[in-house]
Amino acid sequence: MAELNSIKPNYLIEAPALKLRQTDSSLKIIDFRKKEFYNQEHIEGALQMWRTDIEDTTYSYSGMMASPKQIESLFGNLGINSTDTIIIYDDNGLCEASRLWWILQNYNFKNVKMLHGGIESWKKIDGKVTKKTPEIKKSIFKLFGEPKMQYYISKEEMLKALDKNVVLLDTRTFDEFSGNQQKKGAAKSGRIPNSIHVDWAEAIHYNGDYRLKPIKILENFYHKKLNISKNDSIILYCHSGVRSAHTTFVLTQLLGYKNVKNYDGSWTEWSHFNNLPFVNNSLTKLK
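The structure corresponding to this sequence follows.
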């Protein structure tokens, strides 16, 4: 964890530490990538999961978080027990893994870690990868207590927050933020009024090894961008709450911001309601 300046966040694990524990039966490794990539290679023993597995499809738009019952059914079918420790990895700088981390946080499940550096960090230490799918013995998985929804905010709460003293952070690309690009799933392009743009990928070495940047660099970057105290209220959103889940992790677990919420439906949901305020104008990115 030297790259993070010796800070050891509870929800990160390095590849060498995972390798030491790989044979632990109470450890369940989740490959959070599309099935096609999982089939090509995955960490030995890893189970496969993707965004669509943790989505509530009862909405008329995509990307909404799965219900507690869905999570319990999914995990049970994969043979995960309530007392297991879950290790999640991806190949996208923890962006995908963070969405599952965020959902589990909201549902009070804390026994989860994300593999820093993803599958590439595993391969760099000669960790074993395979195409073989592990045998699964179904279990009964139960979440703990009533969901506290620690980092969650709904569309209705987001609308109310527009009249309050909160910082709205759009973690998409600049083209999405400016309205120059409309991604699949959104009803229109644009952004929520008074949003500040901070691309989620600024927190990682996006053109390098996809690992998180050092804490000091992250501290300086977000302090300059936000210019607020760590007790001020922040609401994050992106296209469907995935990239903003990553920034939620960075702000709360690495930098110590205390009042951070991630808008689940994000722009995908917001854009479907014509009665909700939005801004859609072409902007020029400042150099």
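The chain has a mean pLDDT of 94.
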